[in-house]
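Title: Comparing notes on inverse folding

I've been comparing how different people in this forum approach sequence design from structure. To keep things fair, I'm posting one structure and asking everyone to reply with a full sequence. Here's the target:
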């Protein structure tokens, strides 16, 4: 398999075909497609359990879709999916299998990495998580002074924070009544101080979540929290108030956490794919292990769908192909995710890491710099809030930004007609982006509103909307552990498919290293114990900081 960079014409046949399809199709209006085909929505909607994925409001027709599917086939996608599920070392720069799918394998199928079935160790950790989360929830595992642990603090960053944080927030409705969850991630002392100020050491459990157990932010925060606890309750209290989630027993022990209080995971689980592992411990404590299992089951349902469905019926594949179509042919290098659900407000930041850390790469799997666009920038926020902030640009900006709308038909809080209003908004936005409003239509509307001829002439362009702006709609029945598990897994596999098509390794993150290296060098310079050579901007800023802190 060669990269897309390769000049071999046969290898990039589908890509070339898509370039010509783009020329044919770029001006075609979705309005027209919907008018011409009354079955368009039905044709381009996929179902999975209670989830409905409507991708009909995208700029494609049957021929475009066929060419996109040919691209996936040409990139040997089915084979690549098989390789991931069979534990091949597809993370080629780190020589690792990529087996987050094993963490939620609810069948008795064996899954191998390096010739070893990984399922027994996964199931063992799950059993340990169940036992511990139940014991905390039911007050059997108590604090040092015998009080129930009701404040659960996850200390972690990046993949060891964003996933459990987002899931806890999304499932807040299911939290045990007497339990509160807190998250400390940022190295900024404020993050620690603001949480600790609220807590009573006697009722607080710290979960130190770090795959490597070498991450400076997490270890610094964990040290501060450990000190806070020891000051209040003494060194002997640590075993009752600190647990670790990690792959690194040695560092956990060195840090001063009893290895018996460690929940293990493995290097075949990437940080940003780890919420299904021991990293989900806070979720299990907050919402109960049964709900944590439902989360896994939702993801497993998607894994089975992804593994077994034909490309044309495969939701993550279609999500990915639409993204490729816009990113690489329309040059639309960003997309936005808008959950119309307050509980999902942190989903966009979670997806930002999932997508941007996975596919923000410039070297392909054959060690060549790529000459095509890879991962897009992702942003988002909860609807309807964001309608009142960045939607202006989505509707009238000069660049097209594809949108994913996510909405549950039923809210956990059906108060008055709040949810009907919210639903009407999400549907209206999708329709408005697709249809737009022509200059002539805007003029007519202004005339109907009694505006003068001059005003109509002046305002008609400002009031027009180009339309033809694409969106997907994910309609769920309700946000619960199962549907959330499905949703997250759909995006994980979407990102994987795009990585396959771009021929990049979605599972390393070397781009975060350079800044870390430089920070280590600059720290002693700020503390005045070293002097370093920098560009004039960095040097001047170091000097200014030192002056201000004097
Ligand atoms: C995710 C990344 C990164 C990682 C953090 C925390 O895929 O690898 O976000 O999760 O840097 O790392 P540790 O869990 O090792 O502390």
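Reply #1:
Here's my take.
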């Amino acid at each position: 398999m060669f990269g897309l960079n390769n000049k071999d014409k046969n290898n990039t046949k589908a890509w070339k075909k898509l370039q010509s399809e783009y020329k044919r199709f770029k001006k075609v209006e979705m309005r027209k497609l919907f008018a011409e085909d009354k079955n368009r929505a039905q044709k381009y909607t996929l179902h999975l359990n209670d989830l409905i994925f409507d991708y009909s409001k995208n700029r494609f027709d049957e021929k475009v879709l066929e060419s996109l599917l040919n691209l996936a086939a040409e990139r040997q996608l089915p084979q690549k999916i098989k390789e991931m599920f069979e534990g091949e070392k597809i993370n080629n720069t780190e020589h690792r299998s990529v087996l987050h799918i094993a963490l939620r394998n609810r069948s008795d199928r064996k899954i191998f990495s390096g010739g070893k079935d990984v399922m027994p160790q996964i199931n063992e950790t799950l059993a340990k998580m169940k036992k511990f989360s139940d014991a905390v929830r039911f007050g059997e595992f108590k604090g040092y002074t015998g009080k129930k642990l009701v404040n659960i603090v996850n200390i972690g960053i990046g993949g060891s924070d964003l996933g459990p944080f987002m899931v806890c927030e999304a499932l807040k409705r299911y939290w045990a009544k007497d339990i509160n969850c807190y998250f400390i991630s940022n190295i900024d002392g404020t993050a620690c101080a603001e949480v600790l100020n609220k807590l009573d050491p006697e009722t607080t459990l710290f979960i130190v979540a770090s795959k490597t157990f070498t991450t400076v932010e997490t270890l610094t925060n964990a040290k501060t929290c450990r000190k806070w606890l020891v000051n209040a309750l003494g060194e002997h209290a640590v075993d009752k108030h600190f647990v670790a989630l990690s792959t690194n027993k040695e560092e956990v022990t060195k840090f001063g956490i009893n290895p018996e209080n460690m929940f293990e995971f493995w290097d075949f689980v990437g940080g940003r794919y780890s919420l299904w592992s021991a990293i989900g411990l806070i979720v299990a404590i907050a919402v109960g292990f049964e709900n944590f299992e439902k989360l896994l089951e939702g993801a497993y349902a998607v894994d089975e769908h992804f593994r077994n469905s034909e490309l044309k019926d495969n939701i993550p594949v279609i999500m990915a192909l639409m993204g490729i179509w816009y990113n690489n042919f329309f040059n639309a290098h960003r997309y936005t995710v808008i959950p119309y659900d307050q509980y999902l407000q942190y989903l966009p930041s979670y997806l930002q890491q999932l997508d941007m850390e996975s596919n923000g790469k410039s070297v392909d799997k054959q060690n060549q710099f790529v000459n095509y666009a890879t991962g897009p920038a992702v942003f988002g926020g909860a609807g309807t809030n964001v309608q009142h902030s960045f939607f202006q640009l989505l509707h009238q900006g000069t660049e097209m930004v594809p949108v994913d709308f996510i909405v549950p038909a039923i809210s956990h809080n059906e108060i008055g007609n709040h949810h009907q209003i919210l639903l009407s908004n999400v549907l209206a936005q999708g329709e408005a982006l697709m249809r737009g409003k022509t200059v002539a239509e805007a003029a007519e509307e202004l005339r109907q509103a009694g505006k003068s001829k001059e005003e109509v002439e002046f305002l008609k362009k400002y009031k027009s909307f180009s339309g033809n702006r694409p969106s997907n709609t994910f309609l769920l029945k309700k946000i619960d552990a199962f549907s959330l598990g499905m949703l997250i897994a759909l995006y994980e596999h979407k990102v994987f498919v795009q990585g396959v098509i771009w021929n990049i390794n979605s599972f390393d993150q070397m781009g975060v290293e350079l800044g870390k290296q430089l920070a280590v060098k600059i720290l002693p310079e700020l503390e005045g114990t070293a002097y370093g050579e920098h560009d004039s901007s960095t040097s001047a800023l170091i000097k200014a900081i030192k002056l201000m802190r004097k």
